[in-house]
Amino acid sequence: MGVRVKPSIFVGRFIVLAFAFFCLIAVVNIFPLSKVMTVQAAVGRIAPRNPQTINMGENTPKQNSTQTTVGSDFIGNKFELADLRNLYLAPIDKQKIWAMVRKKARSQQKRVLVTGGAGFVGSHLVDRLMLMGEYVICIDNYFTGRRSNVEHWEGHPNFELVRHDVEYEYTAEVDQIYHLACPASPPHYQYNPIKTLKTSSLGTINMLELAKKVKARFLLTSTSEVYGDPEVHPQKEEYWGHVNPIGPRACYDEGKRVAETLTYAYHRHDNVDVRVARIFNTFGPRMNENDGRVVSNFILQALKNEPITIYGSGTQTRSFQYVHDLVDGLMALMNNEFKLPVNLGNPDEYTIAQFAEYIRNEINKNSIIKNLNATEDDPQRRQPDITRAKNEIHWQPAFTVKQGIQETVEYFKINLPSL
């Protein structure tokens, strides 16, 4: 005979379960609401940010992982960073030994002309082309370039070093022309403004005539200075600029604008195959120690325990890219079919005061920072929009400012024994 259960037991259990169920529903509904209320209250306390201001704490140099390679497999210019470091950071007596270069059949080897090839950027481009196994002709008048930057290749069967000024005609059978020749730092291009204008105009005409004659692809290294003191931020390639045509910087700014005009005139009229790179602030080993640029100035002043000098208030901004990133960008553009101007720069933006503090903290915490009078026509904001570079030539900077500064400091310590 089965056990008989009283109905009151069922009623009691039902009441308990029902109460638990309603409690659960209440918790689920109330808790998210309280979270939303908390978030809304927090958001309400955040002041709206002016898009024209820069938060000094947000744009500190990134601390990403260290780069160990440069270039890309697609272009064929990928190498271990150590291979390049041996060329610019090795003790000077060991730089006389040729580095190992790739062997190419003569039919596969490009003949490449680099004007300004003994300069800061040009010498790094020459290194990369040589390691790739190309035949390189380096021409330079040594106004700002240095023979020592490329002498480790002298005598190599794939290398020619020619002392020549691009103001005068030059002839060679080449497949590609990288036209870098022109002083790029204010003290140098203002030293002889007429010479600077001739280099940008006559020099560009002579190299375009050569490209036309031998049907070579021509790449002009233009500059972010074509944007002048920009009224648009960040700067896109479509922006026409805001330049003072009669100021002390005009010999360089307008000279490069003329060079761009000439480049596209030869393209439209004579069907010359052209590329234009607009280069933003670049730094790295082989910078001239007296070129007056922000990075070299700050580093050397800190190393010498001198005041780090800022011209103006220091609120003006700049974006700094490491030289290996620039070389990657130049080669990506040269070996791409895209013909419109392309910005090559690092979009990370810093105020000059912020950058001075960073250099001091990295190199010499005892250095003092000193403000001097502002220079005339000094751009107040400078930051590239690199959307076109990402989309069209598949390039973006990879090196952090921190890693670049470390290598640049190392270079100056090796090559300037007085430090």
From TrEMBL:
It catalyses: UDP-alpha-D-glucuronate + H(+) = UDP-alpha-D-xylose + CO2. One of its GO terms (cellular component) is Golgi cisterna membrane. GO terms for biological process: D-xylose metabolic process; UDP-D-xylose biosynthetic process. It is a single-pass type II membrane protein. Its EC number is 4.1.1.35. It holds the Pfam family GDP_Man_Dehyd. It is an enzyme of class 4 (lyase). It comes from the Eukaryota. The chain crosses the membrane at residues 12-31. Residues 113-408 form the NAD(P)-binding domain. Pathway: Nucleotide-sugar biosynthesis; UDP-alpha-D-xylose biosynthesis; UDP-alpha-D-xylose from UDP-alpha-D-glucuronate: step 1/1. GO terms for molecular function: NAD+ binding; UDP-glucuronate decarboxylase activity. It is found in: Cytoplasm; Golgi apparatus, Golgi stack membrane. Its cofactor is NAD(+). PANTHER family: UDP-GLUCURONIC ACID DECARBOXYLASE 1, UDP-GLUCURONIC ACID DECARBOXYLASE-RELATED. Belongs to the NAD(P)-dependent epimerase/dehydratase family. UDP-glucuronic acid decarboxylase subfamily. This is UDP-glucuronate decarboxylase. It comes from Rozella allomycis (strain CSF55). The lineage of its organism: Eukaryota, Fungi, Fungi incertae sedis, Cryptomycota, Cryptomycota incertae sedis.
